[in-house]
Amino acid sequence: MAAVYKSLSKTSKKESTTNGVPVKKIKQRVLILSSRGITYRHRHLLNDLYALLPHSRKDAKLDTKTKLYQLNELADLYNCNNVLFFEARKGKDLYIWMSKAPNGPTVKCHLQNLHTTSELHFPGNCLRGSRPILSFDATFTTAPHLLLIKELLTHIFGVPKGARKTKPFIDHVMGFTIADSKIWIRCFEIRETAVAKGTQAQPTEDEEAEKKANKQLPKTGPEKAVDNTKISLVEIGPRFILTPIVILEGSFGGPVIYENKEFVSPNQVRSELRLSKAGRYNQRSEQRIERQAKKGDLGLRTGEEKPPGELEDRVLFA
Questions:
Q1: Across the strands, what pairs with 17?
Q2: Is the separation of the CB atoms in 35 and 78 below 8 Å?
Q3: Which of 13, 95, 104, 143 has the fewest CB within 10 Å, making it most exposed?
Q4: pLDDT tens, residue by residue, 184-200
């Protein structure tokens, strides 16, 4: 029985054609790994992305943070042409490197506002191994570096048809939106709910006019079943925000082709917070010294006696 199933499920070796042009099969594989020092939340995010990307491969932690060119050798060893590397700094900050091995380019991003799937408890769910729909904001087409980031995100998060461990279903959407010079990433389930006959929404005037203009015929079969189904989006998770920092021409190296001048390092932010707290402390210390000096002049300090005045009895009748 197994031999019959394999013979029936075996695809034809001939390439499919579209308008007489052969369609080339897209082969994408993603290597996902992290550096030493990641926290449990970073590890949960890595596992969530590994579950969402059936064409990915997870590897052990990388021991070095300076010799990142070794990732190209790992990608070649595991037959992967995309690399998603999580770099942890000081046990707090997380940087994500997205690279197209072995020739580049490479995008380095700072990850913020991380919320994993397990901690959000969203009601949405999707089939493990299914393929997503990638939804990009129109802002991605306004700048050359955003177009490059869009193409790289498509190669990493777009699961190709017939990839490893994939299932022939599309039941979730990954949204990429740009706001405040940051990339907001969300994941939603496509939920279909049957609508009762008495609760169907009435068509608007524009929809009726469009039907009359197109002279649509009554729908039957699958088209009629679609009209009786309500489609909604339910968030699954994870959710996080990426801030592009720099884009390199090569894979984990090479000249810088884009740099975000508005990016402020989290170390700089923490340093400014410490300086502001130190300034407030210094101000309070100066005020305390001034108060003690005034009390000393008035003789109000504890343990000190007020100097006698010129008109006191002990001075006049001394």
A1: 22
A2: no
A3: 13
A4: 999 998 888 877 665 55
Joined together, the tokens standing for residue 219 give 């729908």
Residue type, 195: V
* Whole-angstrom distance, CA of residue 54 vs CA of residue 159: 7
The total number of residues written for the chain in this structure: 318
Looking at per-residue pLDDT, the higher value among 278 and 263 belongs to 263
| pLDDT of 5 | 44
**Residue 168 class from Cβ within 10 Å (0-12 exposed, 13-18 middle, 19+ buried)?**
exposed
Q: Which two tokens stand for residue 206?
A: 């524009």
What is the number of alpha carbons within 13 Å of residue 99 lying toward its C-beta?
32
Residues 6+ apart with CB under 8 A from 191: 124, 231, 232, 233, 234
Contacts of 182 (CB under 8 A, 6+ apart): 112, 241, 242, 243
pLDDT digits (tens, 9 = 90+) for 110-124: 999 999 888 877 877
- CA distances in angstroms from 2 to 5, 8, 9, 68, listed in the order given: 5, 10, 10, 45
CA atoms within 13 A on the CB side of 110: 17
